[in-house]
Amino acid sequence: MSSITQYKTKAGKTFYRVQYTIGVDPLTGKKKRTQKRGLKTQREAKLFLAKQMVDIDKHGFAENQKVKYQDVYDYFMKSYKSTVKESTLNRVQGLFKYHILPLLGNKSIKKITIPMCQEMVNKWSVDLVDFRKVVSYAGMVFKEAKRLRIIYDNPMELVVLPKDKAERHKLSDDKFWDRNELNLFLRKSYETYHGRNNKAVTLFRLLAFTGARKGEILALQISDFDYTDRTLLINKTVTRAIDNKQKIGTPKTIGGYRTLGLDKTTADMLNNWINELHRKLKFLGIETSDDEQLIFPNTKNKLLSLMKPNKWMQHIIDTCNKHRDSDSKLKRITPHGIRHTWATIALESKKMTLKQVQQQLGDSDINVVLNTYAHVTKQTSKETIDSFTAYLKPKKK
């Protein structure tokens, strides 16, 4: 809102005063006004005001120059955090903390240009596998600034995204084991922990024979296991809350809800461990129902640390490699690598379709499987067409 008023000095001279808004705090809505005095004619006052309005129309309020990217991010997070799960919020805030805010946080959001964003995107594309997500989240803050009319264009929408190379999604050979390596690990796991840590032995057996995620296994309750039907219900997972503490949450996508079949040996091992767990809890005087009782709790009958299986696994690998020659050593992978191992072996075996592998893994998008395990699916596809060609070929008389 603006105005032009006439006033007189003590000496009796007539001048014009222009008052207009130079800023609106986009985060509070409060207006800041200023004035220009000493204009000699009404025409001069109107010309001055028109010039200021055009400048504001083109470049926004002068006060908005002081709004930093960090300010808009803080405002954006107040509403964003109520729209996602805590685990997602934790991950997104991590992306901002380590990749986005260090580069943009202290900059005036109006002064961040397209070339500046392009340079950052190019860097992210080299450093990060899933750089497109970082670009998307960074753009959300600009979108919020645009909604608040701090800026008129979102520079992240105008960058050229580097081509997403297919090999970025391929699983490198050092992230999973082959069939012989997996068998070696399971055997060494049994030799190392049987009788003194059957919890670890059973946990690794489940990871290896179901392809489930570590968090899904650690969230299992006794009621999720049906020994008669040999099935395991996956309907939750261990995640991290906003304070980084562990908690049980729901699967990220609808595909995460699934029922997994178990082979007899795995079902027997799991049943034996549950019976042992019951005995241990009874000895400690702990009474819980099967609906609430975790299958793999810690020593205080709470959620087992997500890092505990990693430590058990590294100990087994160290033990296995201690007295073996270089040709027999196990690669150092993580529990998530066992999931990759299951998927790779399942595809190589040709006993399961791509769709069945996707459903077993709980991935919502079959393209995730296609891209991640491209090295296996290509070979399987080639062998399938070779088999078809051989079958179709006329038999010699």
Automatic annotation (TrEMBL):
Q: Which PROSITE patterns match?
A: TYR_RECOMBINASE
Which is a GO BP term held by this UniProt record?
DNA integration
Query: Sorted alphabetically, which Pfam families does this protein's record hold?
Result: Arm-DNA-bind_4 (PF14657), Phage_int_SAM_3 (PF14659), Phage_integrase (PF00589)
Start and end residues of each Tyr recombinase domain:
172-386
Family stated for the protein in its record:
Belongs to the 'phage' integrase family.
Q: Mind telling me which Gene3D superfamilies this protein's record contains?
A: 1.10.150.130, Intergrase catalytic core (1.10.443.10)
Under InterPro entries, the record lists: AP2-like_int_N (IPR028259), DNA_brk_join_enz (IPR011010), Integrase-like_cat_sf (IPR013762), Integrase_catalytic (IPR002104), Integrase_recombinase_N (IPR010998), Integrase_SAM-like_N (IPR004107), Phage_Integrase (IPR050808)
Write the record's keywords in alphabetical order, separated by commas: DNA integration, DNA recombination, DNA-binding
Gene Ontology terms, MF aspect = DNA binding
Instruction: Look up keyword DNA-binding and say if it applies.
Output: yes
Q: Which organism is it from?
A: Companilactobacillus zhachilii
How is this protein named in the record?
Site-specific integrase
